[in-house]
TrEMBL record:
Matches recorded under Pfam families: Epimerase (PF01370)
SUPFAM superfamilies (UniProt xref): NAD(P)-binding Rossmann-fold domains (SSF51735)
Family according to the record: Belongs to the NAD(P)-dependent epimerase/dehydratase family.
Residue ranges constituting the NAD-dependent epimerase/dehydratase domain according to the UniProt record: 3-212
InterPro entries: Epimerase_deHydtase (IPR001509), NAD(P)-bd_dom_sf (IPR036291)
Species whose genome carries this gene: Belliella pelovolcani
Superkingdom to which the source organism belongs: Bacteria
Stretch forming the signal peptide: none
Protein name: Nucleoside-diphosphate-sugar epimerase
Length: 275
């Protein structure tokens, strides 16, 4: 079985390629530049296709059985404009995947974002997949729009669509300014780690678990398009999460709890309802 992976050099993409190749899949990885490097070391290189997603042609999808769409534009602050986010996260991939559909390709597995729910996190102890989409950022607004666009496309063309709204994924290869890499760096260097009181409740998901779920979906035969929350179902506070890893790494520094203020508009509980 041959998988076409967008965002192949990204955080989740790099882990997914390793897992897919290990499981015997033939993988074509899309990357924008010859100089783009995977976020982690790959056990084996996929067949690289060097193109921007808006440069893809029908021939690029020949022989492909499944598209796994992991590419996303402007995931980290400072976020790009809404116009650019809408282009790269909605318009460009829809145009590209229409070319795949023209060739008869039917199966798509797509990574969405928990931040599509936005302010709905204030309304639910556990956010259901049918909660209103009330995003507050240009990136998350474009991802919310993409979920609607991909679902409509799947219904119209009778595609097998698996769309996962992924919650707080972490692991090796994650952006350096995120919580888990920052914790690890401070622990290894023997430094103290300033943080908030850590009362925020989140569903932290190891990247390996995310990739396992995505690959499982590639193996399944489902004919009805669906959107699903992807999380562990085990919410914990940021403080609990930080203390756990601080002990795992035998950190000699201190967690400076309460040293930092919460961000403006912080949603204190933001966890998924897992079906």
């Amino acid at each position: 079985m041959k998988i076409f992976v967008t965002g192949a050099t990204g955080f989740i993409g790099s882990h997914f390629i390793n897992l897919a190749i290990k499981n015997g899949f033939d993988v074509v990885g899309l990357k924008r530049s010859l100089y783009s490097k995977p976020r982690i070391e790959l056990d084996k290189e996929p067949n690289w296709l060097v193109k921007s997603i808006d440069e893809l042609e029908e021939n690029d999808f020949k022989g492909i059985d499944i598209v796994v769409h992991l590419a996303a534009h402007s995931m980290q602050p400072p976020y790009d404009s809404l116009e650019n986010c809408m282009y790269w996260n909605v318009i460009a991939p829809i145009k590209a995947f229409q070319k795949a559909v023209n060739l008869g390709l039917k199966k798509f597995v797509i990574a969405g974002s928990c931040f599509e729910y936005g302010e709905s996190g204030l309304l639910y102890k556990e956010i259901p997949v049918n909660a209103p989409l009330r995003p507050t950022l240009s990136y998350s607004a474009s991802k919310a729009a993409s979920s609607i666009a991909f679902y409509q496309m799947a219904v119209q063309f009778k595609l097998s669509l698996s769309y996962f709204r992924i919650f707080h994924v972490f692991g090796e290869g994650e952006s350096n300014d995120r919580l888990w890499p920052s914790l690890k760096r401070a622990a290894i260097e023997g430094k103290d780690f300033p943080m908030t009181k850590g009362e925020q409740i989140r569903d932290f998901i190891p990247v390996e678990y995310v990739c396992k779920r995505l690959l499982e979906q590639c193996k399944r035969d489902n004919h009805v398009p669906f959107i699903e929350n992807l999380g562990t179902g085990i919410p914990k506070s940021i403080l609990e999460f930080s203390q756990y890893w601080w002990e795992v790494w035998n950190a000699t520094g201190k967690l400076l709890i309460g040293e930092l203020d919460y961000r403006d508009g912080e949603i204190m509980r933001y966890v998924p309802k897992i079906d």
